């Protein structure tokens, strides 16, 4: 199918001559005697190439060019200008014309200009097709990458969970072995030890299941205007009995000058409960020295509140400290599930905050949560 060319010129003789030249160059020619006729043709026929004289009565070539580029921006326009009228030619190029030729017209110059315009159209079409294909390819590859990352995360989680379950199963097998020996030898001490081992690991399975359910629940943060110190006091009151049973003292160091802030006290309460409970467990095995957990608050100019939970336990080695927020990683041995700190980090992130751990062997551990506030109530 031949490419269409719309020739616009108010002189009949020039239209006839140029029509023959354009047709001989291999194009289908449509003609118009002025700009308005050209617009009527363009409204009903798709024409990729337009050749127009600049000097015409009524709507001149520049006004026609302006409307073509507004309504049919992909059409290539070649302007015909009188010899020496370079200013009009430059103005046409500035307005979006692809080329211009001067009178008197040479057949070769017209054919070259048409070929260049045709090449421009082909390059533009190829670029558009390439861009569309590239966008489709990027979309497909992005989907594949997201799916691969999701499967990798699932695989990592399943592997970590399997390791945690294997540890619990190993503990149960050990407990059952001691129980069997107690039954076989009718040894009450073996029976007591075996039962304690089984009871402990059943409790660990229950905690693991509950922690997984809690972690899987969608997080809904509900900020409200409240005293940022309130969650710290409530967590102290909640866990003080557990601490006393293990010989651990809970101490509050609250910044009473902190203003009322817009935060989620329930979410912060949950985070502090996890951290303080871990801190108590970290202190319980100390054979000497004070067993103490400190809950501290501080204000950052009303923009955020900082919570610190510090213990006097054995501390955490540097190579382990980098893993404490990983899935199912625990420093409690058979007592931990490895989900508490992971869930705490998730909750802190949902609140737009940050959490960090600092520790050294024999120096205790400090976990710091920083929570931003949206508004300060005066």
UniProtKB/TrEMBL annotation:
<dbReference type="InterPro" id="IPR036890">
    <property type="entry name" value="HATPase_C_sf"/>
</dbReference>
<dbReference type="GO" id="GO:0000155">
    <property type="term" value="F:phosphorelay sensor kinase activity"/>
</dbReference>
<dbReference type="InterPro" id="IPR004358">
    <property type="entry name" value="Sig_transdc_His_kin-like_C"/>
</dbReference>
<dbReference type="InterPro" id="IPR001789">
    <property type="entry name" value="Sig_transdc_resp-reg_receiver"/>
</dbReference>
<keyword id="KW-0804">Transcription</keyword>
<dbReference type="InterPro" id="IPR036097">
    <property type="entry name" value="HisK_dim/P_sf"/>
</dbReference>
<keyword id="KW-0805">Transcription regulation</keyword>
<feature type="modified residue" description="4-aspartylphosphate">
    <location>
        <position position="53"/>
    </location>
</feature>
<keyword id="KW-0597">Phosphoprotein</keyword>
<dbReference type="InterPro" id="IPR011006">
    <property type="entry name" value="CheY-like_superfamily"/>
</dbReference>
<dbReference type="InterPro" id="IPR005467">
    <property type="entry name" value="His_kinase_dom"/>
</dbReference>
<dbReference type="Pfam" id="PF02518">
    <property type="entry name" value="HATPase_c"/>
</dbReference>
<protein>
    <recommendedName>
        <fullName>histidine kinase</fullName>
        <ecNumber>2.7.13.3</ecNumber>
    </recommendedName>
</protein>
<dbReference type="InterPro" id="IPR003594">
    <property type="entry name" value="HATPase_dom"/>
</dbReference>
<keyword id="KW-0902">Two-component regulatory system</keyword>
<feature type="domain" description="Response regulatory">
    <location>
        <begin position="4"/>
        <end position="118"/>
    </location>
</feature>
<dbReference type="InterPro" id="IPR003661">
    <property type="entry name" value="HisK_dim/P_dom"/>
</dbReference>
<dbReference type="Pfam" id="PF00072">
    <property type="entry name" value="Response_reg"/>
</dbReference>
<feature type="domain" description="Histidine kinase">
    <location>
        <begin position="160"/>
        <end position="375"/>
    </location>
</feature>
């Amino acid at each position: 199918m031949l490419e269409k060319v719309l020739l616009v010129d108010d002189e009949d003789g020039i239209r006839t001559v140029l029509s023959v030249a354009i047709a001989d160059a291999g194009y289908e020619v449509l003609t118009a005697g002025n700009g308005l006729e050209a617009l009527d043709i363009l409204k009903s026929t798709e024409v990729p190439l337009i050749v127009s004289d600049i000097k015409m009565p009524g709507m001149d070539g520049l006004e026609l060019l302006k409307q073509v580029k507004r309504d049919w921006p992909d059409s290539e326009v070649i302007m015909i200008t009188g010899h020496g009228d370079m200013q009009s030619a430059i103005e046409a190029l500035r307005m979006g014309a692809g080329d211009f030729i001067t009178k008197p017209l040479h057949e070769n110059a017209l054919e070259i200009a048409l070929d260049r315009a045709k090449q421009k159209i082909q390059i533009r079409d190829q670029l558009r097709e390439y861009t569309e294909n590239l966008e489709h390819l990027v979309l497909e590859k992005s989907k594949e990458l997201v799916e691969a990352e999701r499967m990798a995360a699932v695989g990592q989680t399943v592997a970590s969970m399997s390791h945690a379950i294997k540890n619990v199963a190993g503990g149960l097998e050990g407990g059952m072995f001691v129980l069997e020996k107690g039954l076989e030898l009718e040894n009450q001490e073996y029976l007591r030890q075996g039962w304690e081992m089984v009871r402990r690991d059943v409790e660990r399975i229950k905690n693991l299941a509950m922690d997984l359910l809690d972690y899987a629940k969608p997080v809904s943060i509900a900020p409200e205007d409240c005293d940022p110190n309130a969650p710290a006091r409530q967590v102290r009151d909640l866990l003080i009995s557990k601490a006393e049973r293990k010989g651990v003292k809970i101490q509050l160091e609250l910044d009473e000058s902190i203003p009322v802030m817009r935060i989620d006290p329930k979410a912060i309460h949950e985070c502090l409960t996890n951290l303080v409970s871990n801190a108590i467990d970290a202190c319980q095995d100390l054979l000497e020295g004070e067993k103490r957990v400190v809950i501290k608050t501080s204000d950052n100019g009303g923009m955020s509140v900082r919570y610190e939970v510090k213990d006097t336990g054995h501390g955490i080695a540097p190579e382990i400290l980098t893993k404490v927020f990983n899935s199912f990683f625990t420093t409690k041995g058979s007592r931990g599930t490895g989900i508490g700190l992971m869930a705490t980090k998730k909750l802190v992130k949902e609140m737009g905050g940050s959490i960090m751990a600092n520790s050294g062997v024999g120096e205790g551990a400090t976990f710091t949560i920083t929570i931003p506030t949206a508004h300060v109530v005066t």
